[in-house]
């Protein structure tokens, strides 16, 4: 799927699991997700859902931070066997989840920086900016990302779930790609067969443009209405 579809799937995916995990414990973590955590998780998942495509030099995520992500893209493409190979596997999802969770345990500042980077990737994937003016688009993205990250920090968002959200976003990505014709090797490096190969729809084809993306967009709207008590947020007169 294209970057915007992956980003939307991250938002919808997080919104879908919130009612399932709310007030429960999972892997030693207790989930008490308020509005801040719902918004933060949606953006984190949206950004994480683009990370597997760092193995492609022309991907949205690769272009987000210029030379930094371009160099990282080349490294991951080499280490994980090229596009839609190792970065599209459970191995990569678990690896990212563990590394990010260790990051969360190590430093609160590191968490805020990583969240900032993921939100920037998410906004880029969701099409936030000006396509014909890369400089202006970059400035708009950076300002919006900084504003959102600062607002979430001020609200005291608890990121104890960050590693799980990142791993979940990565999984959503390769499951999204599994329903396209290229398929993905989800059990790489132990089993390199591409699941879904030769089946499904063409990436950025009419099915994705006219059905998948609109359906995901509707999912975001429905999830937002369901999860947020809008009448309670409005001022009383």
UniProtKB/TrEMBL annotation:
Keywords, comma-separated and alphabetical: Hydrolase, Membrane, Transmembrane, Transmembrane helix
Organism the protein comes from: Nocardiopsis dassonvillei (strain ATCC 23218 / DSM 43111 / CIP 107115 / JCM 7437 / KCTC 9190 / NBRC 14626 / NCTC 10488 / NRRL B-5397 / IMRU 509)
Pfam families per UniProt: YdjM (PF04307)
Lineage of origin: Bacteria, Bacillati, Actinomycetota, Actinomycetes, Streptosporangiales
Claim: Transmembrane helix is one of the keywords in the record: yes
Entry GO MF terms: hydrolase activity
Protein name, UniProt field: Membrane-bound metal-dependent hydrolase
InterPro entries tied to this protein: YdjM-like (IPR007404)
Transmembrane segments: 85-103, 109-128, 135-155, 161-191, 211-228
């Amino acid at each position: 799927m294209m970057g915007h579809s992956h980003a939307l799937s991250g938002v919808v995916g997080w919104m879908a699991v919130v009612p399932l995990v709310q007030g429960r414990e999972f892997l030693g973590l207790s989930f008490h997700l308020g509005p801040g955590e719902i918004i933060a998780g949606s953006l984190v998942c949206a950004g994480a859902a683009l990370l597997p495509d760092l193995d492609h030099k022309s991907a949205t995520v690769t272009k987000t931070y210029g030379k930094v992500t371009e160099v990282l893209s080349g490294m991951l493409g080499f280490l994980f066997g090229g596009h839609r190979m190792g970065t599209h596997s459970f191995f990569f999802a678990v690896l990212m989840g563990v590394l990010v969770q260790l990051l969360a345990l190590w430093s609160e500042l590191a968490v805020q920086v990583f969240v900032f980077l993921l939100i920037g990737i998410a906004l880029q994937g969701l099409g936030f900016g000006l396509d014909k003016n890369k400089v202006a688009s970059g400035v708009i993205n950076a300002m919006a990302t900084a504003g959102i990250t600062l607002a979430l920090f001020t609200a005291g968002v608890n990121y104890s779930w960050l590693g799980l959200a990142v791993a979940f976003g990565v999984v959503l990505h390769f499951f999204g790609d599994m329903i396209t014709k290229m398929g993905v090797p989800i059990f790489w490096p132990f089993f390199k067969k591409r699941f879904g190969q030769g089946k499904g729809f063409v990436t950025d084809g009419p099915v994705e443009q006219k059905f998948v993306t609109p359906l995901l967009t509707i999912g975001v709207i429905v999830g937002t209405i369901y999860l947020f008590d809008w009448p309670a947020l409005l001022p009383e007169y």
